[in-house]
Amino acid sequence: MKRVSIVISFLFILINSLQAQRVGLVLSGGGAKGAAHIGVIKAFEENEIPIDYITGTSVGAIIGSLYAMGYTPEEMLQLLLSKEFGYWQTGTVEDDYMYYFRKPDPTPEMAHFSIDISDSLQIKTNFLPQSLINPIQMNQAFMGLYAQATAKAAWNFDNLFVPFRCIGSDIYNKKPVVFKNGDLGEAVRISMTFPLFFKPVWKDSVPMFDGGIYDNFPVKTMKEDFHPDFIFGVALSTGKSKPSDNPYNQIETMIMQETNYEVDEDDGMIIRFDMPDVSLLDFQKANEIMELGYKRTLSLIDSIKGRVHRKMPIDSLNLRRKQYKESLPPLVFKNIYITGVSEAQQKYIESQLHRDINQEFSMEEFKRVYFKILAYSKIKEITPKAIYNRLNKTFDLHLHITMSDEINIGLGGNISSHQANQLYLGLGYRYLGRYAADMNADFQVGNSFSGVMLNGRMYLQTRIPTYINWQGVFSYKRYSESQSLFYEDVVPAFIKQHELYMKLKLGFPFLNRAKAEIGFSYGQLNDYYYQNTDVSFADRDYEHSRYNLFSGSLNIEQNSLSTKNYPITGVKRTLIAQYVTGTEKYTPNVPTEPSKNNTHSWLAAVAHYANNGSNAGFTLPEDTYNSTNRIMFAAHVYVASTNTTWGYNDIKGLWDRLSAMQKKFGSDVPMYLGEYGNRIYPQSGTATGYNDVARAWFCEIANRACKVAGVVPVVWDQGYGQDPYEKGLFSYWNRKECKPIFKDIIDAMMRGTYLDASSKNLKYDFTDITEDPEVIEMTTLIASSDTYTYSVGQKASIDVKAIPEETNDVLLWSTDDDSVVTVFNGQIHAKGVGSTTVHAYSQSGSVKISFKINVLPVESDKKVTISTDDDTETIVLDKNTTLNAKASNGERLTYTSSNPSVATVNSHGKVVATGIGTTYIIIKSESGAVKRVQINVKDALDTDEISLGLKVLYNDSAHKYWSAETGTVVKASQDGQYTVKFDCNTDLSDAAVKAGITNLDKLTAIYIKDENVDNGSAKASPLDSCNITIDKVVLDGQTLTLNSLAAAKEAVKNGVFDSGNPVNAWDGSAVDEVKATDHVATFTTNTAHKVIEVTFTLSGMKFKTPTTGIEHPAEKIEAVGDTTINICPDSNADSFELKVKVTPAETENVVTFISGDESILRVPTKAVSVDENGYASVEVQILKNVDTTITALTDNGLSVEYEIKREHDYVEISRVDAKVGVEGLITYECTECHKQMTETIPAIDEDKPEITLGTECKPIDGKTPSATITDKDFTSSEGVKGVKVDITIPDSAKEKWNDWCGNIIRVTDKDGVHYYMWGGSGVTWDKDIDGDKVKEITGGSGGSQWLGTVVDGKVSLYIPVAGDEFTIDFITDCYVSDGVATYDGVIYVIEKATLLKENVTPNPSDPSGPTGPSKPEGPVDTGDGNMPGVLIIALAVSAATCVAVMRKRRTVER
Questions:
Q1: Were both Cys, which of 407, 624, 1016, 1289 would link to 115 (CB 3.0–4.6 Å)?
Q2: How confident is the prediction for the chain on average, in pLDDT?
Q3: Phi and psi (nearest 5°) for 756?
């Protein structure tokens, strides 16, 4: 019965795990390739595979968000193929929404730029567009598409039909941004905003772009935000793509940073698509791309079902989808809010909006008025946002409007081989405020036509939209020769026309796509011409006709042509009714003939239609050759197809057959060589290991033979694009990517076809070919250099000149290390960081030349760092771990193991233990960053301590939660008694709490387990060999009665404590009584218990003695020589040896040398054995002249580090300081190579004698300066004799200054050190300054001077200095007692300092204070031996006053 209950429990556990399984779908970016995502989703739904979470980038965000909003795969595909989607991705406005009434008159401009003068007359020029695609369509479309779902989700993407995340790129901070809430349309818009194509979306004052720039495959976001049980990734890109001539693909490759398109096997699966023929915007291929995604997913469906057992029936899914869509709020707008414009502009725009929409309006109504408002030339862009108003159940419409620049400048013209050359300049001014207006001036200059047009248009605030348009035109036309294009039946020699007209028009909208204009105009036309054929240009005058005309007209026009000149799209329709009246005056060029006056009036109706997109009337020319008697002969020749190399006999065999064809058919029947070719064969010693060079040689000679024979050659090509050496024996051309597979062979064919027999590469006379022509061997090979340096990924060529020039020998190439570079026919492709040698040699073996090739990593703007979870990992033999390493800039990483006999590592960082010991996994980035991780491999039982934990298995009756929760963990290192505990208050996981678990009443089992066995790091445990006795079980502080301890058995027999089967532990529901029989406890209770404790005793536990396999472990490693190695960068050395000594010499440990930066120094990653003398050495390759380190480590953890310095040891040997208008100069010299360098000190522009400081001074300790001013603070101190310092006392300190406050200034200059006092009206001289008594050192020059007394919170100090170099220290002496400041506030503020070039007398104008302090020992010495009596009296009075004031204050304070 017990076994049956065990089986049933396991079935419940299995069912629960299936029901709880959650599936996440990760969709990468990839432009139009994203239609494959729809096929994947379609296959999932049809096979009832659930999709619980979605993350997407770029097009993955679009498809993912649509599905998250309840779209079916069919609805998503229909949207991608719709006309509307085409309008969104191109920015084209549909004809139905083109508000032609406000469209400005077309101009012949070809390019334009704008100037913004609105910002305080600050001119800002804008030459380049912000995007190739106009954003106005996408702005309104994304709002309408996503507004309802955003409202339904309450701005939280977890509340969508399917929880959703998408990725954007913050290019300012250079990081991806995960969007999990907010406006869904804005988030998706950011995620797909591909640079250059789409304008950036500004969010939080930062421009946001396509998420694919930094994270094109958001599997990390899926893990961190949703924690699914199974992840299915769809990668539309697989990393680095092959070069393409498609500009869209080139932009994509240039912008997108490399992404790791991987899903760990333990986490799920990934499907990859390679669609090189699909560019970024090929959405017209969506149907076939979707089918590709669908079929590829179906091919994996069995594997997916093997991993995902939970099902989502399609009926249930569609019901949920229907209920979700029905719950969306209707998209109805009510309130409108406008931002981004002035108040006048806002009022004008609101008045225009309310013409067309009512209090509540639909998306369609808004769309029509949206494009109407955008038709104003001053309005550049409108960004709408819909925010749901839950109070009135409608959406509030927020419109952020961006205005165009005020001034627009257009440039254009026409370049012709005839006289029609033309230049165009257009100036425009746009205004929108209380009204809207445009003003333009167009200028055209040319040989046959010149003119100027002034145009102004103002839109009126009338019930019916109306504008007034005024035009004034003056033009000059000149036809310098007779052309039937202009006149018929007349032979004019010259025609000149001057035209002047002015026109006033009223414009009205006509329907939605046209406009009507009523116009009134006046015009004056002057025609000058010759009327006969016999003209003497020297003395003949023009005949002259002058017209004065008045006109009224009605014009209806619709014009959607893309440009005025050379349009490529659009239609123009015009209908004009016009009445004209006026006079004509004719003046002949013969003076004797009279002038004539005529009056003309007429009514004209004109209709004009232009359809630029029509090709009507153009057909292919008809083939009129009717002969049916012609045939064509084709021959196939494969005489050399089975050879690995080809000789001259093979060429003769081809020539013999071509000659036979000529003799047989002659010139009667056309012939061509329908097939010839040669196979790929393995061949050692060549660049690629195959016979490509020989194939190129044969194809060139074959094509030359065909040229001589007059036969067109057609090579037989199987055209495989991938792995050609295996799949296409006759392969030359990649049909899929339309490019050569072997470019050198195609080039050889071209040479054979286009070069004649005398070309220098290979010289043959096919009219007299012999059996074995003489080979002219190469004698010398010449190159411009013997050393080349490239960056990883770079392609270049090495030019080698062969001597003699008439050689017909073949030049072959090889490389010593194809992991560094590959070479073919001189074409170098840098593959990896390092150094190698490339060889060029003749096929005859007569000559050889070699080149040293250095390959450096691609330079990075920032220092790249590699991070891992830990720098040391310990794994058990026969186990593995995966290093979660990441480069800071997302670069791809490579992994190598220093000691594969201990552990190996694959390209994904998966480490597999192969033997006991230590190894280092060296992780490198493409730019050379290096990280090392120490891997210690041990036996499962090589331990002296185990961790035991109490496990509580929950399996509640409602099947909502199943998991083994872990309680406290105790360490056991020997036999003895231990207690383990589980507390629901602290030990429940977040998942358990979320599932509603609060206590022990839903548990199925409790058991004790070795944590190493539980987490999989060990297969066995020391518990296997010991006896276990249960001593006590305590439930919420109550000790339970154990019925039988005698029945306990050895754990090894029943597998209680270390078994993977928790049902074999204590089984039951929580307890009043515990039975210890066979270690199975059953107990029942209705109390919701929280804490359970189990006390048990271990006996007979045995640990295995750790073994390392090392008989003589390394005890010491030390550098041979200095650990600092300096190599002068001018040294020609490209490598150096590094050596260490290991003790003892007989150690079996190995040494691994690790470079601090592989882009600077490269060392082998393989561990080095210690020689018989204890030395281990390595050859270090020098790649850059930059400092770095190299660390040598033994595999038992000892290390020594070398510092490698690659710089000149420069020291300064001379200096000339800069002066006003004169530069200074510093000269340095390298102590090693004595190379000198100089550094220019910029000249001082002007002598600025004053600086503003604002320095706050506080008491410190009476010795330390609280502020310092030096000559270096000024641009120049030349000729200075003093410094004036302006000081203020803050209000907060004025009370302190009422008490005594004297401060000290210390001046250090060329004459020594001087001390001065300033401040309050009384001073003492017994403060200890820098260890000396002031009174003992003030007898020197200026030593006893008083600089100034504070008056009204201010004082100016005049401080004398000697020489151009000085230091002035301000020592705050007041409120310092025994070296400790008793007041920590600001005492005074140094506002500014001014240099003085005249002699300075301290305190020159201090009317309120003394000119010098009283010294305890007597009157002041003025320095000249005289003490004037007036001065003595003044000092005495002042001193007495100060003393009296101080005594009075102190009395009050007491």
A1: 407
A2: 75
A3: -80, 180
Residue 712 to residue 703: CA distance in whole angstroms: 8
DSSP code, position 1068: S
- Is the previous residue joined to 621 through a cis bond, with omega within 30 degrees of 0? no
Q: Are the CB atoms for 838 and 812 separated by under 8 Å?
A: no
User: Rounded to two decimals, what is the model's pTM?
Assistant: 0.43
Q: Tell me what pLDDT residue 148 has.
A: 94
In angstroms, the CA 678 to CA 659 distance is 21
Distances (CA, A) of 229 to 224, 560, 1286: 12, 55, 73
What is the per-residue pLDDT across 181-206, written as a single tens digit (0 to 9) for each? 989 999 999 998 888 778 888 887 78
Task: Report residue 204 as tokens.
Answer: 């939080």
Q: How far apart are CA 232 and CA 734, in angstroms?
A: 32
Longest dimension (CA), the chain: 151
Task: Specify the range with the lowest mean pLDDT, choosing from 920-934, 1324-1338, 1423-1437.
Answer: 1423-1437
Could you give the CA distance from residue 231 to residue 21 in angstroms, rounded to a whole number? 11
Encoded amino acid at 407, one letter: I
Give the pLDDT score at 1380.
82
- 1150 and 1173 Cβ atoms separated by less than 8 Å: no
**What is the SS3 assignment for 1273?**
helix
Sequence-ordered list of residues with C-beta below 8 angstroms from that of 722, at least 6 positions apart, any chain:
none
Beta 848-856 vs 787-791: how paired, if at all? parallel
Cα torsion through 249, 253, 256, 258, rounded to 10: 130
Distances (CA, A) of 1095 to 445, 1040, 1076: 104, 12, 13
Closest by Cα among 606, 555, 605, 548 to 581: 548
Q: Tell me which H or E stretch contains 565.
A: none
Q: What is the separation, in whole angstroms, between the first and last Cα of the chain?
A: 97
Torsion of CA 878, 884, 890, 895, to 10 degrees: -30
Confidence of residue 1052 (pLDDT cuts 50, 70, 90): very low
Residue 1181 phi, psi (nearest 5): -90, 130
- How far apart CA 884 and CA 921 sit, in angstroms, is 12
**pLDDT given at position 832:** 78
Least confident of 72-76, 218-222, 1156-1160: 1156-1160
Q: Which two tokens stand for residue 875?
A: 């794994």
Please give, one letter per residue, the 3-state secondary structure of 1189-1225.
EEEEEECCCCEEEEEEECCCCEEEEEEECCEECECEE
In eight-state DSSP terms, residue 1420 is: P
Residues ≥6 apart with Cβ < 8 Å to 1028 = 1048, 1050, 1051, 1056, 1057, 1079, 1096, 1097, 1098, 1099
What share of the chain has pLDDT > 70, as a percent? 72
- The helix/strand/coil state of 663 is helix
Amino acid, single-letter form, for residue 375: A
DSSP per-residue letters across 177-219: EEE-BS-HHHHHHHHT--TTTSPPEEETTEEEEEGGGT-SS-H
How far is the CA of 1400 from the CAs of 256, 588, 784, 1135, 1284, in angstroms? 67, 95, 71, 65, 9
Q: Is 369 helix (H, G, I), strand (E, B) or coil?
A: helix
- The answer to whether the CB of 1238 falls within 8 A of the CB of 1229 is no
Q: Which amino acid is at 207?
A: P
Contact predicate 1161/1206, CB 8 Å:
no
- CA gyration radius for the chain? 46
* Neighbour-count burial for 105-134, b at 16+ CB within 10 Å, e otherwise: eebbbeeeebeeeeeeeeeeeeeeeebebb
Contacts of 697 (CB under 8 A, 6+ apart): 646, 748, 762, 810
